[in-house]
Amino acid sequence: MFEKKRPLDLGKDFFLYGLSFLLLMEWLLPLPRITDTGFIHVFVFVTIAYFVITFLQLPVIVSSSLKFLVTSYGIFLMFFQGPFFSKVWITLFVSDLWFNVLLMIRGEWYALTDMFRSFLFLVLLAIMSYLLFYWIVQARRILFFLVFTIMYVAVIDTFTVYDATYAIIRTFIIGFLLLGLISMYRVIEQEKLGSAPKLLPVRLAMMLALVIVVSTLFGFLLPKPEPQWADPVPVVRAAVGLGTGTGEGMQQIGYGDNDQKLGGGFIDNDTPVFYAAANRGHYWRGETKDYYTGNGWDVTTPKTMELSSRYDGINHPAFEVERLEAEVAFAEESLSKYEHLFYPGDLLTRNQIMNVDLSVDQFTGKAETSLDGSGVALSNYRLNYVYPSYILEELRKVNGNDPDEIIDYYTQIPGNLPERVTELAEKIVSDMDNRYDRAKAIERFLSSSDFTYETEDVPVPGRGQDYVDQFLFETQRGYCGNFSTAMVVLLRTVDVPARWVKGFTQGTQVDVLNDGRAVYQVTNSNAHSWVEVYFPDVGWVPFEPTRGFLSAFDFIAPDRTTDDPYMERLEEDEEEASPAFSDLEDSEETTGQEKKEAELDAFIEGGAKWSIPGGGWILLAIIVTTTLIGIARNKKIVQFYLLRRFKGKSDSQTFIQAYERLLWFLTFSGYKRNVGETLREYAKRLDAMFGLNVMNEMTVEYERIIYGQKSSKLSWDEQKNGWELFVRKIIS
Asked: Where are the domains of the chain?
């Protein structure tokens, strides 16, 4: 029986395959919200390349090579910098692959690196591009994938913070449109409806789209009854160990006053708290706390009013200061009222603000507002502040004695703190000879890939269990409270004074004022904590240990020569590969992704600066090559080329060449010759299939020339009309 591969219809099959790509996107888009996957735009662009390469149906070797090249480029974009055609990153990539293969052989799957997990994920996407092509174009099936897509979207909407309201609508529209079109085309192809009107598929598709749109509208507009069954989600969450989502250990993210018991997960809350107009993005301090209880933080310092900024009258080579102004206005949506200020840096505004009394605590930095002795919550205020920039080289030189009150309040640790916490801290700072490098080493340790930023599935310490010890040695996952508390405790165990700071991150820029200041929206999700370390004669210097957050504080590295003894340590501080898996919950903090998006925007506007030498020409070559391949794969174009090529030829070799090109064109169009089938048998089957009697005649003439040594000068003139008729008939 004659078997043929289904020939591609560029328009129809490309449209169906494109719809399947949109369905696959519903699997990718939630990843930044439900996992620690970053650089989602890279995964999307790489997936598009996979789909294009698969659709071109190139030879297996060519297709596999192109997909491997695209995969490598995706890994390069996420983890490396510099030129793409470089042995350095390729060597590191190959070494990482080999290292992870050894881990898998030993069964240490938990230790796989971010780079290798990203590589495996890209390979999975490449496989999915082929499977969807087979299901859509060849098998004309999609129900299986559609059902699992709907289940996937429903599950992540139920059990994660991802809001799939619009995702399920998109999936419904795209999926049922694709399902209907595939079913329609399958019937048309199986029943061989050759006499059907050419516009029948278009009409049926329009009717199908109309039905889906009307059904969707009815789904929105019709009344919906209240749930008849009890919500099973809390039961399921408890059964799998996720908690109920509202019970003990779960709370809504935001700024609170009570920090005596940390731990447990947070429910995300993007409600705006306040809007701030400032010259740049800053962390917004609420207050600091000094006493670590083993479970959380408390304040034991005496309430002492500070009359002026700690930077007044101080001139030290380790920092430079800038005097700035900011305005804060609390959002109407905010339900919380704060009887104190949120501010960056150190306050210059003292005694009064907005016609109310202002007092700034010397130890906690809390700037409380009151009127006639009663606390007052301001709806808006304007403040002046000092913002310091620290000189790294000079900070490393600081080596004075700490005041007694600093030692008393800010080196405290619980008496029952497990000894292994101290041993870990001593190990981390063993090679450091100054306070800054010790603090930086601990900050870098906590920011490493050994720890995971997590806001929901965060354990609560058990009875008698230390909060920091649990985080460092058992769970190694948590949010800013875990990271910042751990850094403070680790520093204190090696006699470095440190304190815990709470407030908000800089928020998201939403506008720019006429005077050049930016307007930032700060939400409950921006609630954050960080660390400050005391340096004699300098004061408190901030650090950011939370994984996935980049410090908003200014550290200046002076110009250095290669002989500078500080160069090696400085490079260690600043040399850090961009992670492929990083928390994107606070997108304003993950500037690695923003940088990639900014580069993409610059390219669209025509102003890209390529990291690859000749990158623009490489992209142009890829586009041109892809276009030429697409043209070459179009059967109508190939048919037109064959007819034009042999139209004016008439020599002794023309018939042989034309006949052999006809055999190639038949194979190219999906009409392959069976194994063991003679050329005449093949020709007779083709004649029977197309209702002609010319292929057999041409085959007889071809065999006479090949085996009988017959002159072929007149063969082309005799067979030309039949050859042209058959070429046209193949894809008519």
From this structure: 10-228, 267-589, 635-730
DSSP, collapsed to helix, strand or coil, labels residue 292 as: strand
Using CA atoms, how far apart are residues 458 and 486, in angstroms rounded to an integer?
15
Residues 262, 266, 270, 271: what is their CA dihedral angle, to the nearest 10 degrees? -60
Average per-residue pLDDT for the chain: 80
Q: How far apart are CA 480 and CA 546, in angstroms?
A: 5
| CA gap 30, 154 in Å, rounded | 12
| Torsion on CA atoms 352, 357, 358, 359, rounded to nearest 10 | 130
**What residues contact 341, with CB distance under 8 A and at least 6 apart?**
328, 347, 353, 358, 367, 369, 378, 381, 383
CB 542 within 8 A of CB 530: yes
Q: How deeply is 289 buried, as exposed, middle or buried, from its count of CB atoms within 10 A (0-12, 13-18, 19+)?
A: buried
CA dist., res. 511 & res. 516, Å (int): 10
- pTM beyond cutoff 0.85: no
pLDDT in tens, 454-510: 887 787 887 788 999 999 998 888 888 899 999 999 999 999 999 999 999 988 899
pLDDT tens column, 276-288: 999 888 899 999 9
Closest to 344 (Cα-Cα) out of 511, 520, 591: 520
Pairing state of beta strands 250-252 and 265-267? parallel
Asked if residues 455 and 265 have their Cβ atoms less than 8 Å apart, the reply is yes
Residue 675 pLDDT exceeds 80: yes
Beta bridge partners of 162: none
Report the 10 Å Cβ neighbour count for 660.
11
Pair 89, 64: CB distance under 8 Å: no
Q: Could you please report the per-residue DSSP string of 66-93?
A: HHHHHHHHHHHHHH--S-SS-HHHHHHH
3-state secondary structure at position 701:
helix
pLDDT of residue 239: 52
Interstrand relation of 554-556 and 380-391 (parallel, antiparallel or unpaired): parallel
Q: HEC states along 298-349?
A: ECCCCCCECCCCCCCCCCCCCEEEEEEEEEEEECCCCCCCCCECCECCEECC
pLDDT bucket at 372, cuts 50 / 70 / 90: confident
Q: What type of residue sits at position 331?
A: A
